[in-house]
Amino acid sequence: MVGFKNTGKLTAYFYILGRVTRASAPATFQSHFFLIDRHVAQFRAIEERPAAASGVGLSCVLIRCVRRIGQKVERPPMWVMRQAGRYLPEYHEAKGTRDFFECCRDAEVASTLTLQPVERFEGLLDAAIIFSDILVIPQAMGMQVEMVDKKGPHFPNPLQSPADGQYEQVLGREVDVAAELDYVYKAITLTRKKLAGRVPLIGFCGAPWTLFCYMVEGGGTKLFAQVKTWIYKYPEESKKLLAKIADVCVDHLALQVKAGAQAVMVFDSWAGELSPASFKEFSEPYLAHIAQKLPLKLQELDLEKVPMTVFPKGAWYALDSVCNLGYNVVGMDWLQDAAEAVKIRGDRNVVFQGNADPGCLYGSKAAITEAVETMVKGFWTGNNKGWIANLGHGITPGVNPDNLKFFFEEIHRLTKP
C-alpha cells in the first residue's frame, strides 16, 4: 500500500511492508497534490471495501442451500433470529449504559454485538445477522422512535389519521436512506471485515405492513385497533403509505448489500394479525414489490443479486401464495406443520426456514431434542435439501445460552450424514 501526506513540501510516505521511507521535493510541486489526494482516496476506497463475496461463496452451506435449490447439502445451515441480543451476558457488557438505538448507531458496538454469537457458538452457526432494528426505517421517514426498557419500542407521536398533518409529511418526505441510515451500512462493512469470510452476513428490514402497524399503533399492541381502523376506514391512504414504505425498504436493503450484506431478510412480524383477504390486500402486494424491485435496484448499482428471505409470522394460511412472491427463502413460525408445509411447497424452488417454538429453549434437554427431532423429521429426513434450521421467532431474553448451544448441537447430531 502506498500512502501520501500533504505536508506543504510534497512529502510522500511510502508504506511498504510496514516500513516508512520519506522523500521530499520542492514546494513548486504542490500543484500535483490534487492528483495525489485523488489517488489516496482511490486507495482508501479499495481498502474499505468489504471482502469479496466469494470469501463465503459456495463453500458456505447456507449459500449453497439457497443458490443450489433442489440439490442436496450435507447438513442444514442454521442460525436463529435475534441471535445477537439480551440473552447473552456479553451483550450487556458491550452495551454498557448506552440505550438500544445508541448501540445501533455506533458501528463498532453494532459490529461487536453482531459477532458475539458467532464467536460464542463457533463452528455451530452458519450466518451472522447485523445488529440493527426494523424501526430504523420509520426513523428515516421522519418519525421519532424510542426504545423503552422492559416495554419495547415507543412512538411519542404515532400517525392519527390521514388528516393529522403528519401523514402528509411522512408520505411526501424525500427519504435519503444513504444519509439517514449511514450508520447501518458502516456497521455492515466493518462486520464483513471482522468476519473475514467465516460466515455470510445477513441484512434486513421490516415489512411494510409491520412497519405501518408500529407507525400507527405507536408501539407493540394486543388489539391492533388503530391500524385496523386505518385499513377499514382509510384503505387507500393506507395503501399509499404502504407503497412508500416498500420503496424505502428496497433502497435500504440495496444499500445494505452494497455495504457488504450477502443475504437479506424481510420481517413481517405482524402478518398474522391480518385475515387471509386483508393479507392479500395490505401485506402481500408490498412484499412482492420488494422481491421484484430489489434485484432491479441491485442491477442499477452494478451489484449481484443476493438470496432474499421473507418471514410472514402467523400467516400460515398464505404459505402457498407466499411461495410465489419471488423470495428464495420463506421463514415460518412454530404454528406451521413442517410436513404439511413441504407438501404445499411441492416442487417449487423455495427454501424453508424455521420453525422451532422459541419456548422450547426454556425446557429440558429432552424437550429441546424433541423440538429438533420434529423439525428434522418434517423438513429434512428423506429430503436433505431446502431447509435452514432456525427458531419460529426470535430468541427471548431469559434463555440460557447453553440451551441454544445444545439446540445447535442436536441439529448437527440429528442431520449429520
From TrEMBL:
A biological process term (GO) from this entry: heme biosynthetic process
Domain of life of the organism encoding this protein: Eukaryota
Record protein name field: Uroporphyrinogen decarboxylase
EC number assigned by the record: 4.1.1.37
Entry function: Catalyzes the sequential decarboxylation of the four acetate side chains of uroporphyrinogen to form coproporphyrinogen and participates in the fifth step in the heme biosynthetic pathway. Isomer I or isomer III of uroporphyrinogen may serve as substrate, but only coproporphyrinogen III can ultimately be converted to heme. In vitro also decarboxylates pentacarboxylate porphyrinogen I.
PROSITE patterns according to UniProt: UROD_1, UROD_2
Classification via SUPFAM superfamilies: UROD/MetE-like
GO cellular component, one term: cytosol
Localisation per UniProt entry: Cytoplasm, Cytosol
Span of domain Uroporphyrinogen decarboxylase (URO-D): 77-86, 202-218
Quaternary organization: Homodimer.
A GO MF label: uroporphyrinogen decarboxylase activity
Main location: cytoplasm
Pathway noted in the entry: Porphyrin-containing compound metabolism; protoporphyrin-IX biosynthesis; coproporphyrinogen-III from 5-aminolevulinate: step 4/4
Keyword Mitochondrion applies: no
Stored InterPro entries: UROD/MetE-like_sf (IPR038071), Uroporphyrinogen_deCO2ase_HemE (IPR006361), Uroporphyrinogen_deCOase (IPR000257)
Class of this enzyme: lyase
Catalytic activity: uroporphyrinogen I + 4 H(+) = coproporphyrinogen I + 4 CO2; uroporphyrinogen III + 4 H(+) = coproporphyrinogen III + 4 CO2
Origin species: Trichoderma lentiforme
UniProt-listed CDD domains: URO-D
